[in-house]
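User: Some background: our group keeps a shared notebook of sequences we're curious about, and every so often someone picks one and asks for a predicted structure to add to the entry. Today it's my turn. The entry only has the sequence so far, pasted here. Could you supply the structure so I can complete it?
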Amino acid sequence: MYPPELSHAMKPLYIGLDVHKEKTSVAIARPGANGEITYHGSIATSLITLERSLRRIAKSHNRTMQDLRVTYEAGGCGMWIARRLAQLKVPCLVAAPSLIARPPGDPVKTDRKDAEMLARLLRSGDLTAVRVPDETDEAIRDLCRARVDAIDDLRRTRTRLLGMLRRLGHNYNGRTHWTQKHRNYLRELSLPFAAHRVILEEQLMQIDQHEERIARIEQNMLGLLDAWRHKDLVAALMGFKGFKHIAAMVIVPEIGDFTRFAHPRKLVKYLGLNCREYSTGSREIKMGITKCGNPHARWILVEEAVHYKPAPKVSRQLGNRQQGLPRWVKELSWKAQNRLHHRFKALASRRMQHNKIKVAVARELAMFIWELGVRMQSLETPQPTNA
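Assistant: Of course. Here's the predicted structure to add to the notebook entry:
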């Protein structure tokens, strides 16, 4: 987990941080299986205060900063602590909260107990680390998620407007909503009460604003792509059927380093696309997917899976996106088309529900993307890590 070599023969100290918005609780675990665990106290959640406290702890125990081992849970406070400690060359493990073993039936939960528990588990090696993303990758990931939020706001606004018109007895008879014809229908709609007319105009104005916001975010995403170190990986992923700029740029920063998954099934598990199972004795019960992984990447893969329902074909748009790509990328894309179409057709012949088919196809699509990502990132120039 950490490099075995230390600055001197002194054994390390294990520091557990329970980080919150305003204050951070600090606990210290001394080396050894039966080493004492003490509560250091609470400090303000800031870089200056944290660095000063760690230096004070190291000095009081005759250690250097490099002899400390620090951990805290991943959460809403972000990765800035891990990045700063990496600059100070202090090993820091950001623990996955969902994989922390907690005692069942314990009715007491305090910041002090959480900090002491983290220090103890770090000393015993029972914590699972999460990946600390590159700052640029994290920024692009946040921009992609901002687009998802904008689309969600647009969907909610449209649903509210259609719901109000439905209550008033105005039902659009056209085939598709939000086409130009439907928008003309809404603009020409005459409502008898002034309050409803105000709501109609306000909602239409919000819809226009949300659409402009989405267009601006997408334009900025394309502008940032040229200078991004994963540009070649995004271009290679666009060689797959159904993937354009937006879908590819969402997938790549969400997964990050493909090489950290030793097997494609581990990526499937990370995405929450693996099935739950409850088997005991002679009973074997398999249920739906776990949904315990990355929701953004999982959502994109499930939506892209429907593109593999038609027969395999390299369309004009796909052919244009594949221009300049290595031959092996095109071959992998064609292999994925044939395999996933056959899978889609076989499950449909068993009369499986459509959404279940999409999830099953998305699971295998993730494996093809893993192979693409591993091979492409092995060709990239190594970048210095932040943590």
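Suggested note for the entry: The CA atoms of residues 25 and 42 lie 4 Å apart. Residues 4-9 have pLDDT under 50 and may be disordered.
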